[in-house]
Each structure stands twice: as structure tokens, then as C-alpha cells.
Give the backbone structure.
Amino acid sequence: MALPNFLCVGAQKAGTTTLYEILKQHPDIFLPQNVKETKFFVYPDKYENGLEYYEKEYFSEWQGQQAIGEVDPAIMFEEQAASRIHRSLGNKVKLIFILRNPAARAYSHFLMTQRKGFEELSFDEAISKEKDRLVQNPAQKFNFSYLTRGYYSRQIERFKEYFPAENFLFLIFEDDFIKNRKITFDRIQDFLEVKRVGLDLDIRSNKAAAPKNKTVHELMRKRNAVRNTLSKIMPGSLKKTIQDFISKKNIKEIEHSTLDVKKEMELIQKFFMEDIQKLEKILYRDLSTWYTK
């Protein structure tokens, strides 16, 4: 069976889309071509379809590449994902984690959720109301978990229950992925046990953006009469292609898409320091660049 022997499981907003685009170039690495994130290990209804469905739906184009994988940052956050992966793929699957300053990650996550039309609160309001929102509406855990998704140590611990230490590759977004990309992709190729080849590393995906026209954005993203009509008269794949095309034409890059340093440090000290200290022990790595400026 052509099933993954490696997974990049997260974190979200830490360069996973760029990782996917770069690794797709490698002749000995296979990734699903038409979709980055299958959500097989994330959503119960998809997982219940079974491994035969997973293979046929996403890996049928495999042509004998040595490394077979998937990139999905939601895997790291989903409580049941580690056990599902272990049950389905065994304990030999390799796992790549890319971890980003959790305060910066939270803000980037907020901008993405806002861009998709799910978030109407300010960043400060969303942070203060996060806990209550997730309790009241657990189905929104992937959208509104700005702080919660940054508690990396507890998420990693779930995977440590099922997989040996040699199966983990931990990367730090700011130091490894941004500053030392060439060295890092050599490490990734070695970790996946494929030959080192030259890759185009100058890809940058998912730039922070906002809609040019709010009305057009809401027509494309939110349930409404126009979308309901389109669903009835055209195949889902065509509808999605048109929706994505219009949405891309309707966005503009945000100039000020990073947190103020003072605000970032405030969030780190208030919400994340305890978890970062635990993470440093797990990784055997100094993460002081996240909490000292």
C-alpha cells in the first residue's frame, strides 16, 4: 500500500505550506498533488472511511517514490490524531514539527481567520474571549484557538506516547526555517532518508492578506443564496475552483501583519512562558529568542 511514512504535523502558521511546496519538487518524495491537507487523521468522519479510502483518494498517483507523506498542521492540535496515526501507520512513521513563537503564531492565526470571514472581533477581544468561545462552541476549535494552539509541549507529549524519539524532527520557524533554510532542508532530506538534491527554496506561501471588497469576500466565503444556487448547478470541484480564483483576485497583502514587539512580549509572559520552559526541556534547545528582545 502507498501510505505515508512521514507526516509534517504542524504547527499552524509556521511555514507548513511553504514546506509542502518545496518538498513537492523532490523526485524521491511523494505528497498528495491536488490537496495539501487531507484531514484524514483530523476529522472523525474522514478517518472512519478507512485506510483503503485514504490511499485511493490521496495517494493513487504514487509512482514508487521512497518517501510518502502529508503536510497538515491541524494534526498536531487534534487530540485524537496521534493515536489514529499510530493505529493506522504504526510506530515507524516519521514526524516533522515546525514551531513558531507562539505569540506571533497566534496573531498570524487571527489574521487568517479574519481573512476567511470567521472572525469579527479585534485581536485583544478574541484573546480575552477564547476560552469561553471554545467551551460554548467546540466545533470552532480550529478557528478560534489562537492561544491554545501555541501550547506546544502538551501537543508534543501526545505524540511521545506513541512514537520513539528518533522519529521526531523539531524545527524552529524563525531560526531553522527562515534564517537557515538551506541547512534545514538538507536536514529534512537526511531525516527522510532521501538523497540531497537542489530545491527552489525561495518559495513564500500564505502571505498575510485582507479582502479588497468585503461584499465579494462574504459572497465567496459565507453561506448565502448565491453560493447555494451555484452548489445546485455545478460540480463541487468547479465551484471551488471558481471560488478560489475570485477570492485570490479579491485579496491584498497586509503591510502591518506582525505584532508590536511590546505586545508580543506581553503575551509571551502572560500566557506562554510556562509552556515554553517545558518545551525547552523536551527539545533540549534554548528558545530565549522567543521571550527576550
About this structure: Residues 8 and 96 are 4 Å apart (CA to CA).
